[in-house]
Write a structure and sequence with these properties.
Elements lengths: L3 H6 L13 E6 L2 H5 L1 H12 L3 E6 L10 E3 L2 E3 L7 H7 L11 E4 L4 H4 L4 H17 L3 E5 L3 H5 L3 H11 L7 H22 L2 E3 L15 H14 L11 H8 L5 E4 L2 E4 L5 E2 L3 E5 L1
Parallel strand pairs: 1-2, 1-5, 2-11, 5-6, 6-7
Antiparallel strand pairs: 3-4, 4-8, 8-9, 10-11
Helix pairs in contact: 3-10, 6-9
Length: 276
């Protein structure tokens, strides 16, 4: 500290630090998003280099266009969720250099529910259109065709029995529909200027639809690359695993009883999280 008489003669310049802009990230998906939520939050927060507002639709078996059920839990469709209402209520970011960042992933569950590739593509197109209205910088994952191609009849029977016992589609029909949907998704991305993300076959495990845990980070970092966020290492704290894993979506049904959870479910200085 300078003596008082020197401070009067040579005032010390002060620097006002501008707070880092809050990044707004929107992620649409299903089981892989739920499984990797803590990693997603950590990576997006670190690479955006500031506070993060994270809006997520997720959940095992989540559908883009219809209500879905896994065991005793039901969730509304992604298009019918409260996410869109919440986004409309958000104030503008106020800086053209800080556009909302969006990832559309986990596309394909609806094929196993019996919907056509064209129908599913139409739902995804509508979701992307809504994100584009928010001026979002959008990335879309392609279907994991390489992983699906490796599935034989025995693995397919196991997958169908475990995850979608009501599905009666033969394996050949599922593979053909997945290829058709992937082509439709590429057309959606081209129409809206979205970045397509390829998913290598070795990212996926035995069931061919769930990312190996060690590759969840690969997906989130690839999305951040598509958003042109600067590279940065990120670690997930154990407290975040426990905290985020215990949070619930705004609307869900458990054993036929509707449950409502006020949003956001996390409100910290570095992270706010909305789940739908």
């Amino acid at each position: 500290m300078l003596p008082e008489h020197l401070r009067r003669q040579h005032p010390v310049a002060t620097v006002e630090l501008t707070p880092a802009a809050t990044a707004r990230v929107v992620v649409l998906g299903a089981s892989n998003v739920s499984r990797g939520l803590a990693r997603l939050a950590a990576i997006a927060r670190r690479r955006s280099a500031g506070p993060l507002d994270l809006f997520v639709t997720a959940g095992h078996g989540r559908s883009y266009g219809v209500n879905s059920r896994v065991a005793a839990r039901r969730l509304p469709s992604i298009l019918g969720s409260g996410l869109w209402r919440a986004l409309e209520r958000q104030p503008p970011l106020g800086d053209d250099s800080h556009r909302p960042l969006a990832l559309v992933t986990d596309i394909g569950n609806d094929l196993l529910y019996g919907f056509s590739a064209g129908q599913v593509a139409g739902w995804v197109r509508e979701a992307v259109r809504r994100l584009a209205e928010q001026d979002g910088q959008i990335a879309i994952t392609r279907l994991p065709l390489a992983s699906l191609e490796s599935v034989g009849p025995a693995r397919y029977r196991m997958l169908r029995t475990c995850y979608v016992p009501g599905c009666r589609l033969p394996l050949a029909a599922v593979k053909e529909a997945a290829a058709d949907l992937d082509a439709e998704i590429a057309a959606v991305a081209a129409d809206y200027g979205a970045t397509l993300i390829d998913q290598p076959g070795d990212w996926y495990g035995l069931d061919a639809i769930h990312l190996r845990r060690r590759h969840l980070d690969s997906l989130w970092h690839t999305a951040c690359d598509a958003w042109r966020l600067p590279a940065a290492p990120a670690r997930t704290a154990w407290r975040d695993w426990a905290m985020l894993g215990s949070r619930a979506a705004e609307v869900r049904s458990l054993a036929r009883r509707m449950r409502y959870t006020p949003q956001p479910v996390v409100s910290r200085s570095d992270l706010r999280l909305w789940l739908y």
